[in-house]
Amino acid sequence: DAKTTQPNSMESNEEEPVHLPCNHSTISGTDYIHWYRQLPSQGPEYVIHGLTSNVNNRMASLAIAEDRKSSTLILHRATLRDAAVYYCIPANTGNQFYFGTGTSLTVIP
Amino acid sequence: DAMVIQNPRYQVTQFGKPVTLSCSQTLNHNVMYWYQQKSSQAPKLLFHYYDKDFNNEADTPDNFQSRRPNTSFCFLDIRSPGLGDAAMYLCATSRGRGGEPQHFGDGTRLSIL
Q1: To bridge A35 with a disulfide, which of A22, A47, B9, B43 should be the other Cys (CB 3.0-4.6 Å)?
Q2: Chain B: nearest CA to A90, how far in angstroms?
Q3: CA–CA separation, A20 vs A82, rounded Å?
Q4: Would the CB atoms of B90 and A44 count as touching at under 8 Å?
Q5: Cα B47 from chain centroid?
Q6: Under a CB-based contact definition with an 8 Å cutoff, are residues A70 and A24 in contact?
Q7: In this predicted model, what pLDDT tens digit does every residue of A12-61 receive, in sequence order?
Q8: Which residues neighbour B71 within 8 Å (Cβ) at sequence distance 6 or greater?
């Protein structure tokens, strides 16, 4: 199973873009890259996922490196509600999720 | 509307007294998962069901069991809870395998007296 490396914490000013990096150098060719976020006392919330191409949705964008060994979650305009722990998860074909330590994002008003 | 529902949100049990946590889903998804999340840690996968096929993680203690009587419901049984089993237990579902997103409930926080 692919291991991930993410910064323990990051800060962003409100209404500015945020780039959350993730290294997953041992990812296999069929693993999808998922991003989830978790607020205190809530279950993880789906943000975005992709395989090879960059992906966009209403919440965020996902930029995947050409060699797939890293990816970046982009929040285009951080709001206070985006403060959470963000997890990058390479999911194998069995779809088992092995969470890493994640990045705790603080948004500064 | 809640799609993955976990009841109760808070559960207290006594050391060694069996406890069952429940999860239901309205998504008609084939796969259901159970995770354990201890304080300040990431969720840890315990096991999952693909339809009726049970898949246990290698390091899940024997004290943890699961049942899935039908598509909508899944239960987590802890046969003899120890103090170290105090945690948030999260249920999730996905339509299938192969990269499908998982949908999580808000968890049941289990306390052991």
Answers
A1: A47
A2: 9
A3: 12
A4: yes
A5: 8
A6: yes
A7: 999 999 999 999 988 888 899 999 999 988 999 999 999 998 999 999 99
A8: B25, B28, B29, B30, B51
